[in-house]
Write a structure and sequence with these properties.
alpha/beta; D-Maltodextrin-Binding Protein, domain 2; 3 domains; two-stranded antiparallel ribbon; 25% strand; elongated
Amino acid sequence: MSFSDTRLRVFHAVAKHLSFTRAAEELNLTQPAITFQIRQLEDHFDTRLFDRHHNRISLTEVGATVFDHAERILELYHETEKQVHAMTGTTRGFIKLGASTTIGEYLLPTILSGYHELFPAVRVRMTVHNTSTVVRKLEDATIDMGMVEGPVNNNNLTVLHCMNDELVVILAPHNPLAEWEEIPLQRLAAAPFISREEGSGTRAVVVDLLAATEFPYEQFNMVLELGSTEAVKCAVESNVGFGIVSAAALRKESRLQTLVSRRIQGIPMIRQLNFVYPRQKFRSKAVEEFLQFARGRCSGL
């Protein structure tokens, strides 16, 4: 939490989400602690700020007025913090990042180690999910920023390009398809396919790329549907079938020659990796510094 009043931040989170549970997740507090802070604030004003209707809550007229003022007060708190940190040259704080699988496992660790060297007073917590889960956590305000590899169409979020990434077909070295440098799509359609799960950014990109060829994703001979790039690579190494993953995820396997990568004939599989963050007024200096630093690192990769 920042130096701003705890009760005000708790009230703002509950009023924004109209949910005690989601406010507790955003602020990393227990639900009883959230309830206690709201009760204290209502006692202070000697009036109800929320109407309770079974499992739902809504703002009272007074609550709506307090919410408007709370937004302005919290904005002033944030501006005060940013200006003081700018004057002292010290960036402190806590950043909650969400990353989709490929970025979280193969790209962000390098960026985070460089960021920590420059800003040792900032704590960073990164969690790895598929793209759809990262987007949901941004909407719930349980993370400050995401880095994702799938398309994001959400008017509440800002999407900023980081870098391009190539998807490749991966095979066990002794798989007959490895004889091709560029594999015809129809050859792949007849082979066992190890897919990422629904909600995966990699899967969403491949679905979109194939749609332009009028070849539906479901036409692949899907034998396994797995929840991570590492799981796909392990299954492919066992020669269960082929997979489609980021070329960035193959550094170790290429060096050890346990997997080979190939392109699909006539289908360039290039996707964008993006920063995603809420269109909101409140963004800490630590988050802004991270965004600027990470963009610079991405441009050099």
